[in-house]
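User: Some background: our group keeps a shared notebook of sequences we're curious about, and every so often someone picks one and asks for a predicted structure to add to the entry. Today it's my turn. The entry only has the sequence so far, pasted here. Could you supply the structure so I can complete it?
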Amino acid sequence: MEIHVSVRQLVEFILREGSIDNRRTVGADNAMQEGSRIHRMIQRSMGSEYHAEVGLKIVWNAGDYDIAVEGRADGIIDFNYGNHDGAETSEKVVIDEIKGTYKDLRRITKPAGVHLAQAKCYAYIYARENGLSKIGVRITYCNIESEETKYFEEAYAFDVLEDWFDKLLTEYKKWADFRFAWEKERTASIEALAFPFDYREGQKALVSYVYQTIYHRRKLFLEAPTGVGKTISTVFPTVKAMGVGMVEKIFYLTAKTITRTVAQECFGLLQQNGLRMKTVTLTARDKICFLKESEIEVEAECNPDACPYAKGHYDRVNDAMYDLLLHEDNFTRETVIEYAKKHTVCPFELSLDMSLFSDAVICDYNYVFDPRVYLKRFFAENNTQDYVFLIDESHNLLDRGREMYSAALFKNAFLAVKRLIKDASPKVAKLLDKCNKELLAMKRQCEDYQKEEGIDGFVNALMRVYSAMDDFLDEHDSFPNKDEILEFYFEVSHFLNMYEIMDGNYVVYSQLMDDGDFMLKLFCVDPSENLKECMQKGRSSILFSATLLPIQYYKRLLGGEPQDYEVYAKSTFQEEKKALFLASDVTSKYTRRSAEEFRRIARYIYEVVRQRHGNYMVFLPSHLFLERVYDCFMEEYFDEECMECIVQEDYMSEAKREEFLLRFQGNANCDLEENIAFEIEEESDGILIGFCVMGGIFSEGIDLKHDSLIGAVIVGTGIPQVGCERELLKQYFDERGDNGFDYAYRYPGMNKVLQSAGRVIRTAEDVGIVALLDERFLEYQYRRMFPREWASYEVVSVDTISGRVEKFWNDWL
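Assistant: Of course. Here's the predicted structure to add to the notebook entry:
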């Protein structure tokens, strides 16, 4: 058996020491995107003796198993490459480790310890493979702006490197021993693991689709209607694939906290049935930071002067990790906090480290896809590993992807930072002023918003600003207005990173803002290539959602390829348990919005809810629209003896959200499966109506089962408000021969409708009604997007809907 570890993971894990100090490392990884260009530039400029991106691997015997250390050397200088026969050669062999940086090279006086250690690993492996008695190590630093280079080179005898490498692996062996024993135990438990329920109709086929996708190293786009058990149906076959060696690590990716809870419960259920598996749930830094625990709002300062958990963190964290590994299987937020306090280490960094020894990582999309925060310990190197990405509610990944790979800067920010930094660094202030002048020239040409064809002048000025700020931050641990200046620094970093990878899937535009500010944005209209590149770091990806329609639209924009699979899972619902009504005499069109239309919508709501007491949600296009309809309803139809109305506010804290949902049921939970018979209960004492915004916090990711919600009234087609980015999307896809209106407006709107409707029928036992109040739903362009479960519907008017609702309920009483 082999335990695999990358060169980077090995040296960063074993050789770290000291404190967390973001004052000195703010720019450490910010040059990564630009650095790839620098790598290519240097590699191409070398002679024929230079061999780029050479994969290296060594297998180190650890007794009962082997440790495989592998990685990719940036470059190897070797005139006899591939022809060594063990004889000494007069030609020097050198391992080259390339690092791009914005720092002034004069400030780099020695190579970073981790950079040198990586290169020494590669040097040992290469010298051992080729029988070399000595070998050189070179660390090449290249300034990204000026493209100047600085070299640090040293020669090592093979026996010195061998002794150093053996000591490194001996330290790692303690951790490898644990992995070896644990993986044997885990594999045995997986072999004995059975599906924890009786398969529902179509569920066994769904499990098979997932397993076959992993086997064939493909992506699966899965439209899984609510109630089919999509969480257990994706997790179980992935775990089984891990048991036969196809999967090294599972990443369960979510967009919302509630779905992370569902994933935890799913793994917990399998553990109750005998599975031995280590899982970690990653929590955002701000939500787990100990400095944030006080009622006083403070910025999390990750340095030894401000935080006792940062001071000496790396000296203690490995002990904390080993303690956790020996005594816990699920590294949840609460568990990580407990052990972080016990060992006085940073809980956020501890949770990230625990991912190294976890079989499953439950986390937000960001940790795989976002170039600012992705897990570099797994994805920094351009290698494909046997990771499987289970991407829940994957319809959310499209807009999140656009957001992650877009970048914007605001003119006023340059002026504000200039004022803050001018006394501390006149040089930076002067360079900020040059950027401001570039933006001012663009602003004078912009009336509302416009595409920008060439921004090279601004970007060149911005690179000089970033380089100067990098030097400034390296020289100063503390200074006035540090938080504001750092925030701007990171925004500039992200802008430059996105500019480096920008291609034809981007639109560059500028816009005059309502407050008088001026924005320049790199807008990623089609994130498919970026998402695909991230998913290629793993073996397979399963993208699943209850609303992945039209599936070809999502397959294209989420990085799907022709050979990837798409599956429409069979619904377990009995169609007759749901009534779907389409209104023929009302709309939310802007041209029809009037007091009369608002009153008609209010009457529709009344006619639906008055036929049966219970809990209802009404979803409306916007907060303003909600207010108008709510006022009409309260004025004309509200009956205080039997009705209660609650309203979604513009901003709601987590406590207020929970309070809102608890009004619908006292015991709403997110059970993975329920195999109980359900009968309609006695009619509730009153009518509860929640007025919500479509696409908002209550239209997705909440689980109100059985009588917790018996009806949803959906007003409008969910079409996003017309704006510059929507229009740019429309134009972009029109130019490529697609229906731009569908891509920019109709498809995203319909997804919000489907999500809102999905709040009603949550299990195979649920009974309820959905009313779509917009005559546009009768048009073919919308009906063609209906899911299969919506094949049966009734067209109604405000005068007839009451009778149809009454008949539906009478049929079930």
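Suggested note for the entry: DSSP finds 27 helices and 25 strands in the chain. The radius of gyration is 29 Å.
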